[in-house]
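Let's sit down with a protein and look at its sequence and fold side by side. Once you have written the record down, we can walk along the chain together.
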Amino acid sequence: MAHNPSRVAHELREHLASDKRKLGFFMGAGTSMAIGLPGIEKLTELVEEALPTDELKSNFAKIKEEITVTSKNVEVILNRIRLIRELLDDKEENAHNGITGLSIKNMDHEVCKAIHKAVDTSEVVNKDSHITFSKWLYSSYARRSNPVEIFTTNYDLMFEEAMEESSVPYFDGFIGTINPFFSPESVEADNAKNHQEIKPPSSWTRLWKLHGSVNWFLKPDATGSKKKVIRGCGSLDSTGKELMIFPSREKYLDSRKLPFITFQDRLRKFLSNGEVVLFITGYSFLDEHLNEIIFQALRSNSRLAVNALVFGEKEGDSFKLPEKIASLGMEYRNLSVYGPDKAVIGGILGEWEKSTSGPNVDSYWENDMLTLVDFKSFSQYLERFVGFGSKAFNLSSVVSNLTGGE
């Protein structure tokens, strides 16, 4: 069976236009890679290269060697660093594998500085896709019965910058001006009357950063006995200021109400109740703890519709929908999976029909491929096909960007 891309483009527009159903977006690393920021593997390389001394590089390599899982990326390594740091208690007299407590503390700090620098959005030249997406949010937020909720695994500040530039009011779980603090009560607030005094306006977009952010810091309180998560700005130069990105053991040691767990609970609650439409883009389904939340909701909520736009894997000169992700669409009938070459809709796998036409067809189709699977194309689809108007999308530039010009 073949699927018609024009029909799919129209059906997705209907999903996006509905102001009665809850609408959410799950944004993975691909949305940042589309504008030139590093993915997790490249980020790991950049962090290792940026460590300023031979001792740090050597200790980083030792810790990397200790890790037994297949993917030894910077998240896994940082989690190991913080486990060792916890055991050594930051003391010079304590050591593990030749690494002292003070050395591991310094490594934690330098790794975080390197991550902070690597995902700095100030060097991004073309931010049009995020700004276009934010303008679309701005055009529709006031008429919706429920706020649009954005869940992202990205650490960078691209969505915050774009929404602020586009004047989109949003809430990210933090409250305050000098050192904004995390407010789990406001994240969890719903329409119950007893929550009215702490609930942000329903027209505000919600931004939930599931893996933390480069502007989240773990800061000691005035007594130094406890630490709390704040949203700050600037660099990590001040001592005792630790970057909060996932995974971090601190998120479990302090309080269950820290942002990581609260936002996972929010995703679970959002997907599990009522009529819900979720768009997934830039995500490869590699985070098992998040996959289980999504799959559980697909099993339990028959009124949930998930649309996964999957960029695919490169094969020769083209991109293909991975079989593993396609199989998820065949297992869960309320999960529609759209790849560049084929799709799974209603549990049925089929290639795209090769001939398509219609107004603004170039906003979602090019060279017999569905271009919506890339975030740049998706944002321009929102602008042109759903209600704006801009330049045509160039698929070749996206492929070149994601493959390093190969």
Q: What stands out?
A: The chain has a mean pLDDT of 86. The two ends are 33 Å apart (CA to CA). The first strand starts at residue 22 and ends at 27. The CA atoms of residues 61 and 258 lie 30 Å apart.
